[in-house]
Amino acid sequence: MEIPSSLLSLSLGLLFSFVLATSADVYENFVQCLTSHSQNPTSISQVIYTPNNSSYTSVLEFSIRNLRFQSPDTPKPLVIITPLHESHIQVAIICARNHGLQIRIRSGGHDYEGLSYVSHVPFFILDLINLRSTSIDVENSTAWVQSGATLGELYYSIAEKSKTLAFPAGMCPTVGVGGLFSGGGYGRLHRKYGLAADNVIDARIINANGRILDRESMGEDLFWAIRGGAGGSFGVVIAWKIKLVPVPSTVTVFTVRRTLEQNATMLVHRWQYIANKIDNDLNIGVNLGRVNSSEGKQTIEASFHCLLLGGVDELLGLMQKNFPELGVVKEDCTEMSWIESIVYFGGFPSGSSLDVLLDRTPLTRNTFKAKSDYVKESIPEIGLEGIWRMFYEEEAAIANIILTPYGGKMDEIPESETPFPHRLGTIYQVQQAVGWEEGVEASERYIDWMRRLYSYMTPYVSNSPREAYVNYRDLDLGINNEKGKTSYEQANIWGAKYFKNNFKRLVHVKTMVDPTDFFRHEQSIPPVSSWWKKRGK
Q: In angstroms, rounded to a whole number, what is the distance separating the alpha carbons of residues 146 and 135?
């Protein structure tokens, strides 16, 4: 029987009104709970932002790094909390559990799929921007850093205390410590010292019961899980104790660009055979993209970026021995301090002050879609040429591929040492990204191009599983159920790609520490109690 349109409209109207009323009730009850359970109601009221607050939009948008999730249609949080104290987080967790709100934890806002600030169920954002202190212990080569700090802030604090200590993490200074450490975290030093997560030696986390735990009290299973198992699954990590690493007072960098007319195809092909085998002090990455040549024609450019922990003469000797085809000369190279190399690779203008590392606003904000891969066998030249053809397509005007070499220390650390499994046998990691300027309404066309490139890469990258980097979040790989439980088999579709065999242990840890799945999102680790009972775990 067909329902009259008038009744259908009335029903939809009543349903919409009920949803609004329900959301309003949840919001009111949640805010009231925050103030009534806080030790200092005045203090916590100063860090609560609701849609009625004049600062709500600016606080929400300040740390949105992918403009794909800043459209009017993007779901917005009922509340944003920017805690000043650990107690604010404890109260927020307890109140969210009591009133059925999902939590989204934001450190720097660089989640590629916006999962730190977007949800399709009623949610609030716990924005850690005010918890950003660092404490450097030069004598013991350690530091404590809060999760709301950016990499730039951390690096700046290290350099203030020492010119010969560093930390192996990312190259983008506005990335938040909390998210990067949680998923692994690589940069220019990972071939020498491993990932950021490999150099975490303690942490403080607030669990689903509001308890504050350190490494000793959380136990080694949970400590293992938070160092590469990705954020938002196990609790709110509020601070990390890290091991600082020695660097020489002088490092050397270069950026050498070669187009197809300058044998870029041959050079990229050759690079694959030396990238993971050269001296551990040397890191040569490659950026690929479309440019206009000096003749005004479109071409493909391979940009080779290098950091050596040493002087220019040593670098020239290593390049002549390992990669003479690139033709690097002394004039291409610049000696500088490690902290100056952070500014250099951060893309700041030459001569910029170190103070630029303290600016949490990125140089650019884009609308983009990205994916990741791992290469175990060198891609033949004919395979590279197929990539070039895709770069000439209309959608690829703001597309690039970043090749990051592995080997060195990365080969020495067992796959199961942390949840991050992409170790021995990996030549390099691939990040594929496409951006656009037309706005979110053009998203599908560009996302389709990215998916076609990803499909093209299939024969040339890892398989069974096709591996991916969890810090380059990609919901195309699979998602959890929005409501209700997610089975191990369903979650393993994406989980095995990020974590390989480590996913099983992550599920076990999750089941132990957060069996009700309070900390959840589209790709959070699910608890699966029945699965573990069935296997006698």
A: 9
Greatest alpha-carbon pair distance for the chain in Å reads 84
Q: What is the DSSP letter of 516?
A: T
Residue with token string 């660009």: 257
Quick check: is 374 catalytic? no
Backbone angles phi, psi at 46, to 5 degrees: -75, -10
Cβ atoms within 10 Å of 113's Cβ, excluding its own = 20
| pLDDT the model gives residue 91 | 96
Q: Which residues pair with 66 in a beta bridge?
A: 366
Please name which of 172, 169, 174, 164 lies closest in space to residue 189, comparing C-alpha atoms.
169
H-helix or E-strand spanning residue 505: helix 502-513
Please give the radius of gyration of the chain, using alpha carbons only, rounded to the nearest integer: 24
How many angstroms from the chain centroid is the CA of residue 360? Answer: 16
Burial class of residue 397 in the structure, from the number of CB atoms within 10 Å of its CB (0-12 exposed, 13-18 middle, 19+ buried):
middle
The conformation of residue 379, written as its DSSP 8-state character, comes to P
d(CA 420, CA 185): 10
What is the b/e burial string over 354-384, where b = at least 16 CB atoms within 10 angstroms of the residue's CB?
bebbeebebeeeebbbbbbbbbeebbeeeeb
Dig out the tokens for 485 from the structure.
Answer: 């439980």
Instruction: From the candidates 117, 472, 488, 498, give the one annotated as an active-site residue.
Output: 472
Taking only the tens place, the pLDDT of each residue in 137-179 is: 999 999 999 999 999 999 999 999 999 999 999 999 999 999 9
DSSP strand pairing (48-49 vs 79-81): antiparallel
DSSP annotation of 132: -
Contact 431, 402 (CB under 8 A): yes
Q: How far is residue 467 CA from its own chain's centroid?
A: 16
Residues near 342 by beta carbon (within 8 Å), at least 6 away in sequence: 152, 155, 171, 173, 357
The dihedral of CA 315, 320, 324, 328: what is its sign?
Answer: positive
- What is the DSSP track for 441-475? GGHHHHHHHHHHHHHHTGGGS--SS----TTS--G
Q: CA-CA distance, 381 to 379, in Å (whole number)?
A: 7
**End-to-end CA gap in the chain:** 52
Q: What is the pLDDT of residue 3?
A: 36
Q: Are strands 398-405 and 428-436 parallel, antiparallel or unpaired?
A: antiparallel
Give the chain's residues under pLDDT 50: 1-21, 531-532, 534-537
Q: Which residue has the tokens 């993971």?
A: 276
Q: Is the dihedral of CA 444, 446, 449, 450 positive or negative?
A: negative
